[in-house]
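Feature request, filed as a ticket because there's no other form

It would be nice if the structure record came with a short human-readable summary line next to the tokens. Right now we just get the raw output. Example of a typical job, pasted below so the devs can see what we mean:
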Amino acid sequence: MVLKVFWQGLFRNNPTFRLVLGLCPTLAVTTSLENGLGMGLAATFVLCCSNGLVSALRKVIPSAVRIPCYIVIIATFVTAVDLLMQAYLPALSASLGIFIPLIVVNCIILGRAEAFASRNGVIASLADGLGSGLGFTLALALVASVREIVGAGSLTVWGDLAFKNLNPGPATLAILPAGGFIVLGLLLALMNHLAAWKARRQGAPAPLPVSMDCRHCTLCGHGKEVAK
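Raw output as currently delivered:
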């Protein structure tokens, strides 16, 4: 079960490409692969730690104040990540800027705490956090790679490790805000096409979009269950 939970977060329920969550950092920090990896790994750390602690305290936290408690837990780990990055990775911290502290309000983090960690054991919750976090990291890395290669003609993996002159005619639009929307939209379309193609090969109907509107909000659903 633990492995299945991990793979679901990594691919089947990928936060960016399947659930379309966390788009603010996805569009804002993916001007280079280094930024995407840094943001993704920071979010993965917070996801794992907050999921594990929420799961461990799920029978202690009163339902009426669960959301404020989750936010306090998440904010604690985000503060730790922010201070560590400022101390040991100052250049990356300056590049990511406000988006590291804003992990506190990232809907992926709070959503997994509420939808999964608050209802499952610690080990499964850690697997869910690791899978979702790495899935988010992979999505950021893919978007960032396309934008940096097309827009700057280079690929900055980490620090001085970079590949130059990958594109003889870079299009600056790709690393501008509008380019982020265009690249993400094209990648989402590609993911949907691949999912439909895979379903056809298996003789199954094309997968329906994942319902993530207000009617399916896990926060409201949890409240209704408690009220019953």
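Something like this underneath would help us a lot:
The two ends are 29 Å apart (CA to CA).
Residues 2-227 form one domain.
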